[in-house]
Design goal:
The protein is mostly beta strands. The chain is built from one helix and eleven strands; from the N terminus they run αβββββββββββ. The protein binds copper (II) ion.
């Protein structure tokens, strides 16, 4: 029969064990900012910036902010296969059915934020906004995951 003290000791060990794997797989946080001329009139193009631009493999939490005053943006995580992303000139968009689309923070209203959590393997990635015309206006940045 367990007395209360040994029961408490056992439950403490059990909860410690169950917490350990989660701590071992660390989560990296990446802040992504999307800007255009409505936020900064000196900007000629649009931009997407990630900080940091490289993280270790595992859980990655992208905290995405649309800094625009009036334009909807989005962030899509794409595997970089070493070739130009397929592009539809008529729609002014990357062809999402032909890329390795890993996840997205879709349709962020001006001034809003969204968080996208992904488990990423080591490799090269591209972050893009695929609202019409935005990719070619500079809303993209490279992103690296290391071992
Ligand atoms: Cu955009």
């Amino acid at each position: 029969m367990l007395n209360l003290r040994s029961f408490l000791a056992l439950t403490t060990i059990a909860s410690t064990i169950s917490v350990l794997p989660a701590q071992a797989a660390s989560t990296s946080t990446v802040r992504v900012e999307m800007r255009d001329a409505t936020d900064d009139p000196s900007m000629k193009n649009m931009e997407m910036m990630a900080e940091p631009q490289s993280v270790k493999a595992g859980q990655v939490s992208f905290e995405v902010s649309n800094k625009s005053k009036s334009i909807v943006h989005e962030m899509i995580v794409v595997a970089d296969l070493g070739v130009a992303l397929p592009y539809d000139e008529k729609k002014s968009k990357v062809i999402e059915s032909k890329i390795k689309h890993l996840g997205e923070a879709s349709d962020l209203a001006p001034g809003s934020k969204k968080t996208l959590k992904l488990k990423l393997k080591p490799g090269n990635y591209i972050l893009i906004c695929n609202q019409s015309g935005h990719y070619h206006q500079g809303m993209t940045t490279s992103f690296t995951v290391t071992k």
